[in-house]
Amino acid sequence: MTVRKFAIADAEFERSPGQEAEIYAGNLLDERHGGPVTIGFGRYEPNQSLEVTIAVHDTMIVIEGEVSVTTGDGTVTAGAGEIVSMQTGDKVLIRSHSKGALTGYVTYPHWRTAS
Amino acid sequence: MTVRKFAIADAEFERSPGQEAEIYAGNLLDERHGGPVTIGFGRYEPNQSLEVTIAVHDTMIVIEGEVSVTTGDGTVTAGAGEIVSMQTGDKVLIRSHSKGALTGYVTYPHWRTAS
Asked: Per the confidence metrics, is the pTM higher than 0.90?
């Protein structure tokens, strides 16, 4: 493996598994490539929500719009250039707001083969 | 550990080790917190460069400006919202351009204790 660059236009988005919201994930580096982490982009239509127990260490950076993440401890809201870190086992409600959102994500280990 | 949010204003920047360029890193989650990855922000003044052998799997997302990464295989240049993935052992030249750059990074394992 070597240095790679990824842009949102490279991603093939698919609905985030196990839910019906208009929230999509597009992996660009993952278990198929032999490295330790999965890298991709997320796309959230406006006012969508997703309740999930995080299966991996999931780092999300907001590129456009805003994303809120709620747990039993409260809610954090991240805008462009801000990062949200979630840990294995966290039960979270992830929400987009009126403008939707674009995010980049890095998971360790690979989210698709972890659950 | 639980859900955390990080903004650039939270980072305490220090010069990237082993070099004299105006390139700074600010860890916000790392080996002190017990998780598997280091998360932080990078700040590049204009027209700086850094030659380094990558000790970890390093994912960089550009928040502002542009960053170029050159290896023996060529150069990739990433702008806002784009991601560069570097692997352990890659020998890279990282450069900023006329506007400098802000980046977010995720390393696995922790870069500070890996080299």
From this structure: yes
- pLDDT for A16 equals 76
* CA dist., res. A61 & res. A86, Å (int): 11
Mean pLDDT of B95-112: 97
A90 interfaces chain B, CB cutoff of 8 Å: yes
Q: How many domains does chain A have?
A: 1
Q: Give the Cα separation of A103 and B9 in Å (integer).
A: 19
Nearest in space to A1 (alpha carbons), one of B92, B30, B50: B92
Q: Is residue A37 part of a domain?
A: yes
- Per-residue pLDDT reduced to its tens digit, B4-20: 999 999 999 999 777 88
Alpha-carbon distance values, B16 to B93, B107, B114 (Å): 14, 14, 14
B6 within some domain: no
Binary contact (B3, A28; C-beta < 8 A): no
- Domain interval for residue A22: 12-108
3-state secondary structure of A9: helix
Q: Considering only CA atoms, give the Rg of chain A.
A: 13
The answer to whether residue B38 sits within a structural domain is: yes
State whether ipTM is beyond 0.90: yes
* Closest residue of chain A to B57, computed from CA coordinates: A36
Has residue B51 been placed in a domain?
A: yes
Q: Does A5 touch chain B (CB under 8 A)?
A: yes
Question: pLDDT tens digit string along A10-56?
Answer: 999 999 777 889 999 999 999 999 899 999 999 999 999 999 999 99
